[in-house]
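ok so for the tutorial part 2 we go from a plain amino acid sequence to predicted structure tokens. step 1 is just haveing the sequence, like this:
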Amino acid sequence: MKRIVLYLATNFAIVLMLSFVARLLGLDQWMTQRGMQMGPLLAMAALMGFGGSFISLAMSKWIAKRTMGLTVIGDPRTEEERWLVETVRRFAEKNLRNVYREAEESKHVPQNVVQMGWERLVPPGHGDWVMVPSVLKTTAEPPQPG
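step 2 — the prediction. this is what the tokens look like for a chain of 146 residues:
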């Protein structure tokens, strides 16, 4: 709910700013002299802005996955994918379930959990741009192909 309210508030603030800038620059008077109204222009700007942001939101996940060359593993097909999903599941059960509710309520993830995730789930040298690691550092080794 909070996200929706923030989304609407942001878009309305942009339209309000457009109105303010138009008045500051005298665009509203210029339009009135030529028989045009500012209201319909702002309504069209709001419609295009809301529409554009929805399109952007719809495209962003797809673009991020394509750009990074990521694949979402919904149903593991290979032994390596099953190992990966199981390793992440065990990590989540052991380390994240205990702090999830507290983190959700306080909007703060404990630093030790964040550090543990970086240490175990991010390959060395990949920095903070890794969205889904291709290697998990755990005590268990992935199954070797055939």
